[in-house]
Design a protein that fits this description.
- By secondary structure, the chain is α+β, with helices and mostly antiparallel strands.
- Helices cover 47% and strands 22% of the residues.
- It contains seven helices and five strands.
- A five-stranded antiparallel beta sheet has the order 2-1-5-4-3, sandwiched between helices.
- The longest helix is centred in the first third of the chain and has 16 residues.
Length: 180
């Protein structure tokens, strides 16, 4: 019931002028050639009232490993003078001891196989995750949305959007994430 109410509020907030303003903020940030982590920060800020987000990661695959390209981590923000690569490295190193490379690769393989948005509303019980404890410890994820970024038929990158609270993503929120 709570999730349905939140979904209706999100849908009402994501129409007309509100949608235009949020998408315009993201487009302006992208056009200003900001680095990717700054862009993710703007996305999280633009969506804050519509889709609460704790973590956003942008990743790509290089052989048998995933390469983080950008990150937004609400509880561990970027320092004012910190370059994108240094921020991504700092977050990667801070979470490295908790990360199982096979698990993060498994998330990529879900995107690669399905080429569609994947919603995981309970990390602890979702059968698609082989090692749920790894994902939970890695970024304290309770709920997540995986979005494929493709060029033609090729998966070039993936976005992972995370909530660190047990607050499932409702369909209206997922639709908003897909729009952005």
């Amino acid at each position: 019931e709570n999730a349905l109410t939140l979904g209706r509020v999100a849908e009402e907030l994501w129409s007309g002028e509100a949608k235009y303003k949020a998408l315009l903020a993201v487009a302006e940030a992208a056009n200003s050639r900001r680095d990717l982590s700054s862009l993710l920060d703007i996305v999280a800020s633009a969506l804050h009232d519509r889709v609460p987000i704790d973590v956003i990661g942008l990743m790509t695959r290089n052989g048998e490993e995933l390469l983080p390209l950008a990150v937004y981590f609400r509880s561990n923000p970027r320092h004012a003078d910190e370059p994108n690569h240094a921020y991504v490295q700092r977050i990667s190193e801070a979470t490295a001891s908790e990360r199982d490379p096979r698990e993060t690769l498994a998330l990529w393989e879900l995107l690669e196989r399905d080429r569609t948005t994947i919603v995981i509303n309970d990390v602890d019980t979702d059968p698609r995750l082989r090692s749920r404890a790894t994902v939970r410890r890695f970024i304290d994820a309770h709920c997540m949305v995986l979005l494929p970024l493709t060029m033609g038929a090729t998966l070039v990158a993936g976005l992972i959007i995370v909530r660190t609270t047990a607050s499932p993503f409702v369909p209206e929120e997922v639709s908003i994430l897909e729009d952005v």
